[in-house]
Prior knowledge:
alpha+beta, Immunoglobulin-like, 4-stranded mixed beta sheet
Amino acid sequence: MRNKILMLSIFFSVLMILASCGKTEKSYTLEEVEDQIVITYGDGDQANYVTQNVVLPTTSSVSEDVTIEWYSLYPSVISIEGSVTRGESDRSVVLTYTISDGDDVLYGNITLTVIGLNDSSTYKISFDSQGGSEVESMIVYEGDLVTEPDDPIKDGYQFVGWYTTDNFTRTFDFDVMPSGDTTVYAKWNYIDENIYTITFDTNGGSAVDPLSENGGVSISAPAEPTKEGFEFAGWYSDQDLVYAYQIAYMPYGNLVLYARWREAVSYEGYYEGADTLVGQSLSNFLENLLSETDNNITYGDARDVLEESDTLVNDSTKLNLIYSLTMKSGNYAKATWDSGATWNREHVWAKSLIGNGYSSDNNTTGVAADAHNLRASDVSVNSSRSNALFSSSTTLLGEYGYDGTKWYPGDDYIGDVARIIFYMDIRWGDETDLDAIGTLQTFIIWHELDPVDEFELNRNNVIYSYQGNRNPFIDHREFVDKIYN
Length: 485
């Protein structure tokens, strides 16, 4: 009897061993399967922005024993096969999945947002990393700001920032609400293995140590030098102090920068309170000053103003017509309004390029009637220029006219134009965009090359007597440096 019991015990033990040998140990967990669930979206779509059919996985690469089943809370919007039907407005749909391998089961859910056909309340922001690591697009609701993503990565390059165009002319402002679907582009600086040096010539100021770094690497500007009786006005790449240089990245070569200085000024009278202001604080001060003192004259009033403000320095009966000086005939226009027969009012910053564009009649006030932006002009020259943007010229030999599709004012008027543009940019900042009329660098150079003359000083005084405000860049040319450099 004892032997039988022993034999039975051995028999059952062998069976248990064989059973355990036949059961394969799992090399995965269902949680790992869940982590690898990937829904495939149509081009440009993502979880919170679905406009096309989706592919819902039913198997897993982790194990062929795994199956995934789907349940949709709104199958009429997203079916379990992934078919998407868009309604009139946005709809969030919860998709529940069941993961099973025959032994264990795991449940979970994913929420997708199907964008309505007539819903314009959301915008898609796409990030083109230009060869860098992928940055997922974002969906923002109207009125919301875009959250700046983590910087992408690209071997051998340093990320500079996000730009609105792929030629990198303007940075994307994450503090401004988008007005529609937008694609932004990553700009990169190539990192050179060579070490380069920037040397600083302070032009009589305190010494500044040189900077050395790999080409293309981001760098910080050194502490500003000091000079008794002067204010530091920035670094320039040429000894003539024409080309301002912004220190941000190490150049791909050695460089000498030159300090520019302006005499320290104490402002009185109209500009009292501007002594210590620079940059945005000075811009805000001038914007408020020009606005508060503006008498808001009409476009019709401007005819009387120009009869007095735009006369020749040595002959108040004749006009200095912008661009051409004289009429096409070679004769001077008389300083008397003749209903536009020989001269009319040129909007230097073309009114069609201000804000969404403006028209003007003689009762118009505001930006389209600002006398500082109006110059007496030969009728045909005004018509020829139309609303062309300004640019420098290498072909006109100092004369006015078109260089390609853009307008050169002529050597004698480039400073006049630049200071009018600066005035308009500050006075009507909400309505103006410098890129709409030319380039900042061009206007800065023109301001330097063609200084304020007696004609401009008199014109500024006359307009002040009628309109109540002044062009600060005629009165104080250093304001250009203080704001724009």
